[in-house]
Amino acid sequence: MCAARPFVLYSLRNSNYATIADTMKNEIEATFVNIDHEFMRQKLREFGAQLVRPERLNRRTIFDYEDLRLDKKAAWIRLRDEGDSVTLTFKQRNGETIDGMKEIEVVVSDYEKTKALLLATGLSVKAEQETKRELWEHEGVQIMLDTWPWLNPIIEIEGQSEEHVKAFSERLGFNWSEAVFDSADKLYQLVFDVSRTEISTCPILFGPVPVWLEKKRRIG
User: Fold this and answer.
1) What is the 3-state secondary structure (H, E, C) of 5-73?
2) What is the pLDDT of residues 172-183, one digit of tens each?
3) Do residues 159 and 153 lie in contact, with contact meaning Cβ atoms separated by under 8 Å?
4) What is the pTM of this model?
5) Cβ distance 81 to 180 under 8 Å?
């Protein structure tokens, strides 16, 4: 019979294990709204950018606890199916700056099984979402042409540093002062008079704008 082993609480900070802070990385990304995607495709081709993934439908499920404890910390868990890969990501917004978004991301093999696993741990579905995304790359920069339900097309530009992202954005003709450094919640708030919690708990799927949301559309 095995002897009982004493319970030991290990401190991650004082061990060889990576801390949460060490594991999370900055997402260096700028978003610009109201984009003509066809015009942007033409410019990207002229610059010699490579089309990595043609436009396709992405589905995602956002998770939180019933009491929205992650939402209260500006955090959420996202399960995303991009067609050729499925990722599970913990994201947290620490500020509306280019490096204010932190994340830990892993690749998983099965969307539905991962969803079931998360639900089994006590998490709840906060919202189901759909988007369309087209991915380009050029000199270490990723360019995402995104379409979200009920919004005009957008572009996201991601790189290894603010300088890199800014330089490429300006090369494409964007005004850096108009960049948005935030999650999709902010993009909806630019169009609709809603709180972050209202829009982040709303199913965002292609189709008619929900009546309650249409009534909150900003004028002008």
Assistant:
1) CCCCCCCHHHCCCCCHHHHCEECCEEEEECCCHHHHHHHHHHHCCEEEEEEEEEEEEEEECCCCCCHHH
2) 999 999 999 999
3) no
4) 0.87
5) no
